[in-house]
Design a protein that fits this description.
Layout (H helix, E strand, L loop, with lengths): L1 H24 L7 E5 L7 H8 L12 H9 L4 E9 L3 E8 L2 E6 L5 E5 L4 E5 L9 E3 L25 H20 L6 E5 L6 E5 L4 E5 L4 H17 L6 E2 L1
Parallel strand pairs: 1-3, 7-8, 10-11
Antiparallel strand pairs: 2-3, 4-5, 5-6, 8-9, 9-10
Amino acid sequence: MKKKIISGLCFLLFIFFICVYIFFFSGKFSVSKIQILGTLHSLTKNEIISMAKIDMTKNIYLLNSNEIKENIEKETYVEKAVVTKKFPREINIFITERTPVASIPIKRGGYVIIDENAKAIKIVQDIKNVKKPILKGIEIKDVKLQDIIQISGSVKANDNSNSETDENIRNLTKFIKQISALNFLDNISYMELKKLDDITLTTKSGILVKFGDINNSEYKCKLLNKILIDLTTKGKNSGTVD
């Protein structure tokens, strides 16, 4: 009787392992669909699928979601990737892109394109490929993609102390973030930022704007937008706004 019970248990265990093997390796649960979600501007869905490096023949239960996420986030234009499995055979990938907002000249040559958080997205050599506006008065020596840009200290206000420079860099990042949120940067070709208490802007139509310091930047940008629209309506494409 005992031997029959043991034999029965062994048989059931054998059947169980056979079922597990079939479940994971039969191909019935291999990935059949990859869904890319999120608003894309710089990347295509096919590019993201290629970055993900998903083995379509592998059982969805055996795929490592973190590995897929890490593969995608190596791309500098990707800020965040969220990977989820939708059983039985679908992978969903939600993408948050970094949005390029401006470019900064690099001391050794070329330009670094940055996002609103001053993180380096891409390095280009030809000025035709930059994302305008170009931020002048800032000196950058070394660039590491996906990291916040390191300014060599040419941005200043009243003195050259390290604490003052660090504060100005934080203010610069905040300034860029504020005005990019207002879609104001789309109208600007150049920004002179050597002194944050005396910023000047040049519009795409050639109008020079004496912006002043970064205080009340949101209010100034909204007011300036109205002024520039008014000047464009009147056909004025040159001059100075103080």
